[in-house]
C-alpha cells in the first residue's frame, strides 16, 4: 500500500503523510491530531512525557482500543454495532456474580463469557443479515435486551465480586522493565489485538470484509457469502467487547454503570480515524489511532482541570466534525461519476 | 387530423451530444407534429434514449437547437421541460409507490387550499385526477389507490395522466411495452390513440415492429447517433426498417481465431431451462467455442447470464457443467463449478471501487479460495501485464482508472481463477477501442485454452465477428440460431419479431 | 385520501385491542382488574409522554431520517422550563416559549448538519445528544429550577379518566396528521422519504421537508420535557437515561411506519405508543420485573422491523414473464 495523494504542505502535512503511510492511506489526519494533542499535554505538564505516565495512559486507553478494533470490523463491512457498551456492562456483572470472589472460578467463567459474547455477536449478525433488520435497530434492540436481562438476573444491582486473577489483566503489570517501569498487561493485550487485527485485515477474510462494505453486490458476484462475512464481523466485535469487559472490570471494578456509553466512544474513535460509516473505507490502524486520540483528548481535559462531565460534549462535537470533514473531503476529491458512453442507463442525479 | 401540412410542434435541429468525449448523438434532426404518433427506432445504443432525455431536460445537448411550438427552448431540469408541456414516461418509473394516484399526479404542484398558503386541497386533487382519468377513458383507476397496487400498465397511465395534468403538448414514451403483458398492451394502445385524438404529439420509442406499425404515423430511424431517415409508416415495411437500422461501421478489427482452437467436449449445457423471465432455453457450449447471445434489451440475455451464474436460477430444465448436473444456488457455487461472469455493470456489480487494483484482482480468490489465495494471486501481476492494464501502481484505487482499465481489472479477477465457463455480459460497454481490442484478444485466447465462452453484447458486429454461433433471444425465448458471420439483418429480424 | 393506509393503521389498533383484551384476561385470571381508574390514568399519562416524542420521531422517520437526541432534548427542555419559570406563575409562558425556541434551534441545527454538511442523521443526532448530555452533566448536578403550581396542573389535571396531558398529546397528534395530509411540506415528507430522486425530478426541494421534520421533532420532544417538568415540579436532567429515543422509534415502527421512510403515519404511531404503554401497565398489574420490560421491548422492536422488512422484500419482486413454479422462492445472491 502506498501513501495517499493528498497534497499537504509543512509540518502538519509531513505528519499526515507519515501517518497515512503508517495507517495505509486515508487515516493520516488522526495521527497528526494525536501528535498535536500530546504536544499540548507535554507543554502543559512536561512530567507526562515520562514512561510511567505514558504507560498509565496506554493502560487506560487499552479497553477503548480493543473496542474500536471490534467496531471497526463491523463498520468497515457497512454495518454498526451499538450493543457493545451494554455487552461490556453485562459481561462485567455476569463475571462478578458467577465468580463471586472464588479464584478457581476465574477460567471457567472467562470461557463462559467468551461463549456468551460470541453468541450475542452471532444473534446481532444473523438478525441483521438474514432477517434484514437494519443493524442500528438490531443492535439497539440487543442493547436494551442485554441491559434489561442483566438487571433482571441480578435483581437490579450488581452482586458478587471479581477474583484477583480476573483483575490482573485489567490492572496488573506483565513485566517490570528497568528505566521504564511496570508494563501493564492491558497494554500488551491491546497491542496484541491491534497486531492481530492488522494481520486479519491483510488476510483474504479481511480483504473480503472491506470489499463487502465497499460494494456488497460486487462481493457477492465474486463468490463471497456476504451474510457470513458480516456475521463474523459482528461476532468479532462482541468477542472483543468481552475482552474489553475483562480489562475494564479488572481496572475499574464492578458498578451498575460500567460500560455505559462505550459504544459511542468506540464509534467516535473509529470515525475519527477516518473510517467511513457505510463501509469499505479506512484502515484498522487508523481506528486504533482514533481510540488513542479520543483518550488523549480526555487526558488533555484532565490536565486542563475541566470536569469529566464535559467529555460527552467533546465527543459529540468530534464525531459530527469528523464525519462532516470526511463528507467534504469526499465530495471535493471524487470526480462526478462519469456516464458510460453509448447512452447512460440511469439519469444523473441533479440538484434543483 | 394528421395529413395536411402542419407546422411541426417539436423541431430538433442538428442536435449533438457526447459523454466523456464519446459522441452519442450527431447532428440529429427530428420534427414531430401535433396529433401524430411518431416512432423512434434504432438498435441498442443508437441514441434514442439520449435524444429523449435531451427533450425531457435530463441531459443538455452539446450542439443544435430544440424548438417547441416555434419557440426555442433549452431545458436545464426535467421540471422545466414538464412546465413547457413536454411529458416523458421513462422506463424506470418516476412514481412513489406508497402514495396515491392523485398525490403522484400532483407531486410538487399540489393545489393550494382556499385561504392558506401552505394548505393542500386534497379533494380538488382527487377530483381533477378523476377527471383526467375519465378524459382518457380510464375511469377504472381510483385516484385514491396507492400506486403500488396498480399494474405496470396502469402505472404508466398514471405517468401519462401526470403529464396531461400539466397540459402536456408532447408525450414521449421510452419502450412503454417492455414490461407489459398481452392485455396491458391493449390498454396502452388505447391511451396512445386517445392522446392522438386530442391533438397531443406522441414520441414513441420502441423495438417492436408490430407496435410501431400498429400505432405510428411516421417513423424516424437512428443509427449510431445519427438520423438515417424519417418515413411515413404506410409507405414502409419491416424489412426496410431493419435495413436502415443495421450496418453500423465496425469500430474495431476482430482478431482471428487462434490456430489450433477447436470445439471439443461439451462444457456447458442447458436443456429446457426456464424461470420467471426465461423459457425453453437450450444452450450447448463446447470447449474452445464462443457462443454469442443477441437480442434487444430486456429480451432475456442478462437473465441467462444470471441463471448461469447462480444469481437467479433455472427453476425448470437442467444445467450441466462438464457433464455433471449443477444446481447453482449462489454465485459462490457457480464460481466453485468453474463459471465466471463478467457482469453487465462493472461499477455496481464488478468492482469494489475504493479498493486497490490488486485487491480487486484477488477478490474472487479471497472470497472463494482463501487458503490458496496467496499462492494464486502471485500470478496477478502477469495477468495484469498480459491485459496491458495501465495503472499507476497495483495499490491504486480502481475508481481512478479509466473504464477500459477497470474492465481489465474485472477480467483479471476472473482469469486468476482459471474458469472453465466464461460468461461475458456487455464486456465492451463504455470502453475505448484499445481496451475493446484487448477484450477480443482475451476472448480468443480463453477459447484457445479450452474454455467455453458465452458472449452477450448489444453490439451486433462484435457478436457476429467473434462468436462461432449466435443465439437470438426475444421475450425470454430463443427465437433462432445463426452461424458466426451471419448478417445483422438476419439477427435483427429474429430479435424484433414479426413485421407486416 | 388514505383509505388504504387505514388498513395498516387499523391493524395496529386491532393489535392494541387484542393486547388490552389479553392483558385484562390475564389480570382477571389472577383476580385483578386491568383498567381501574388509577391504571387507566397511569396508562394514558405514560402514553402522553412517549406520544409527544414519538409523533416528532414519526415525522423524521417518514423523511428517512432519525433522531437519537430526543431524550436529551427532553431533559434539557425540562430544565429550561423549570429554570425559566423559577416558580413564578407569571413566567409560565416565558418558560414554554423558551423551551420551544431552544428545542427548535436544536432541531434546526440537526437538520442543517444533515442537509448542508452531509453528515448522516444517525451521527448528527447522536453527536447532538452527547453535546447536550455533556452540558447537562456539567451544568446541573441534579434537579434544577422550580415549576409553579399553576403549571403542574398540566401534568395532573384530568377530565374523567383522561389526563389533560393526554388530551394535549392527542391534539398534537391530530395537528400532525393534518400537517402530513393537508400541507405541501407534510405531503412532501412522504415523497422525500419514499424516493428522494423522484421527489427531485418532480420539483420538490428535498431539504425543506427534512429540515422541518427535524425542527418539529425537537419541538415535540420539548413538549415532552415540559410535561416532565410539570409532573416533577422541577427540571430533571436524568430523563435522558430513560431510553426515550429507542422507545419512540419502537412506537413508530410498531405503528407501521417504515424505518426507511415514505410510508406510515402519526395515527399508527399513537397506536404503537398505546401498545407499549399497555404492555407496561399489564406488566405492572401482573407484577412482572421492570427489567423484563426492557428485554421485551428490545425483542419487540427487532421482531416488528424484521416483519416489515420481510413484507417489503416480497413487494419488490419484478413481475414474472413466465408462470412461477410452485415452491420457487425468488433467490437472490448474497443470501445464505
From TrEMBL, chain A:
Pfam families: BPD_transp_2. Keywords: Cell inner membrane, Cell membrane, Membrane, Transmembrane, Transmembrane helix, Transport. Residues 330-352 are annotated as: Disordered. InterPro entries: ABC_transp_permease. Its main location: membrane. The chain crosses the membrane at residues 20-42, 54-76, 82-99, 106-127, 133-153, 174-200, 232-254, 266-292, 304-327. It comes from the Bacteria. It is found in: Cell membrane. It is a multi-pass membrane protein. PANTHER family: ABC TRANSPORTER PERMEASE PROTEIN YPHD-RELATED-RELATED, AUTOINDUCER 2 IMPORT SYSTEM PERMEASE PROTEIN LSRD. This is Autoinducer 2 import system permease protein LsrD. It comes from Nocardiopsis endophytica.
TrEMBL record, chain C:
This is Autoinducer 2 import system permease protein LsrD. It comes from Nocardiopsis endophytica. Keywords: Cell inner membrane, Cell membrane, Membrane, Signal, Transmembrane, Transmembrane helix, Transport. The chain crosses the membrane at residues 43-62, 69-86, 92-110, 117-136, 156-180, 210-232, 266-285. The keyword Membrane applies. It is found in: Cell membrane. Residues 1-27 form the signal peptide. It is a multi-pass membrane protein. It holds the Pfam family BPD_transp_2. It comes from the Bacteria. InterPro entries: ABC_transp_permease.
